[in-house]
Structure formats: structure tokens, C-alpha cells
Design a protein that fits this description.
120 residues; alpha+beta; Ybab, Chain: A; three-stranded antiparallel beta sheet; 3 helices; 54% helix
Length: 120
């Protein structure tokens, strides 16, 4: 009877370790960055592993050439959105790989279990 209790205590201890490692892994996501470009590099957006835009660069020559028309404004807006989307798209696999490496060996390899999907 006490053997089962000991096994349960071990399991709870491991769960605390897993929780702590997952929290550390999530906090370290802010150090990952990825940049996406659009408009032949005239617009660049950089995001971090927390899926936050941390930098936006727009070529000064492009800014000078943009007029006040709705078409010009919409084009710039579309380029900014495209650059952010590209950065986010390329960040996703980096996040999954980072979380996989950070939690390696904590849990048995269960097919179909993706720890990366457990993070925001």
C-alpha cells in the first residue's frame, strides 16, 4: 500500500519539475527572434517567440514615395501585414523546436503529444 503512495509522491514531484521546466521554456521564448520581409525587403517585421512584434523597419525611400492616396496607404498597410505574417509563420517551427529541446527527457515520448501546442 505504501509503495503506491511513494509512486504517487514521485509522480507529483516529477509534475512539479515538468511545470517548472515548461515555465522556464516559455519565459525564454522572448529571446527567439525571426524577421519577415515584404516588398522586396522594403518592409521588415521582427517578432519574438512570444508572438510579439518587436521591430518594424520601413525603407525611408518607400516612405518618401508614399503619397496621401488611399491606394498608397493600403499598399503600405498590406506590406506591413505581409511582413508580420511571414515572420510569425517562420517563428512557429522555432517555438516548437525550442520547447521540445527545453523539455526533452521530462516525459516519455508519446506519439501525437506536442508540448509546443501547450504554449500560447
Amino acid at each position: 500500500m505504501f509503495g503506491n503512495l511513494g509512486n504517487m509522491m514521485d509522480m507529483f514531484g516529477k509534475m512539479k519539475d515538468i511545470q517548472a521546466r515548461m515555465q522556464e521554456a516559455q519565459q525564454s521564448l522572448s529571446t527567439l527572434t525571426e524577421t519577415g520581409e515584404s516588398g522586396a525587403g522594403m518592409v521588415r517585421a521582427t517578432v519574438n517567440g512570444l508572438k510579439q512584434v518587436i521591430k518594424l523597419d520601413i525603407d525611408p525611400d518607400m516612405v518618401k514615395s508614399i503619397g496621401t492616396s488611399n491606394d498608397d496607404r493600403e499598399m503600405l498597410q498590406d506590406l506591413v501585414v505581409a511582413a508580420i505574417n511571414k515572420a510569425m509563420e517562420t517563428m512557429e517551427p522555432k517555438i516548437r523546436e525550442h520547447l521540445r529541446k527545453s523539455t526533452e527527457g521530462l516525459l516519455p515520448n508519446i506519439p501525437g503529444m506536442d508540448l509546443g501546442s501547450m504554449m500560447p
